[in-house]
Write a structure and sequence with these properties.
142 residues; SH3 type barrels; five-stranded antiparallel sheet; alpha+beta; GMP Synthetase, Chain A, domain 3; elongated; 8 strands; three-stranded mixed sheet
Length: 142
């Protein structure tokens, strides 16, 4: 069983969903970050409990060679959407798009399929295939 499958099972056992995992370099430090989501929100206690349950697994199957820090967190209100599941779980939210070729757009995500998305903008509905999209993030108007 792959490491990510085992992590996903642990996250699900806490009533949450695995949003993403990534290995990043920040301030000269390697970080293995697991992002989770849960209906009703993610709090520090949930992150702590999931971290405690995943840590022994990482001792046996480290995600990277060498030293690293492990974090469990929420992806936040404003988060990057990279996978079809991310888009499907974000229908109804406001998104900012950078389309390949330089165009930018923003609006409400009204549909997400395995092939692409549709957003409602002030000008009307726009649809894009995933391969047309650059960076896509949700955003919150304060």
């Amino acid at each position: 069983m792959a490491l990510i499958d085992s992590i996903e099972k642990i996250v699900k056992s806490h009533g949450a969903k695995l949003y993403d995992s990534e290995i990043v370099q920040e301030n000269g430090e390697t970080i293995y970050r697991v992002s989770i989501v849960k209906d009703g929100g993610v709090d520090i206690d949930l992150c702590t409990d999931i971290s405690r349950d995943i840590s022994p697994l990482l001792d046996i199957t480290p995600p990277v060679s060498g030293e690293y820090r492990f974090e469990v967190s929420s992806p936040g209100i404003e988060r990057k959407l990279t996978k079809p599941e991310h888009f499907k779980n974000s229908v109804g939210e406001k998104v900012k798009l950078k389309i390949l070729g330089g165009k930018k757009s923003k609006g409400k995500l009204i549909e997400a399929t395995d092939e692409g998305i549709s957003i409602e903008t002030k000008e009307g509905v726009e649809s894009y295939n995933y391969n047309e999209l650059g960076t896509v993030k949700t955003y919150f108007e304060w």
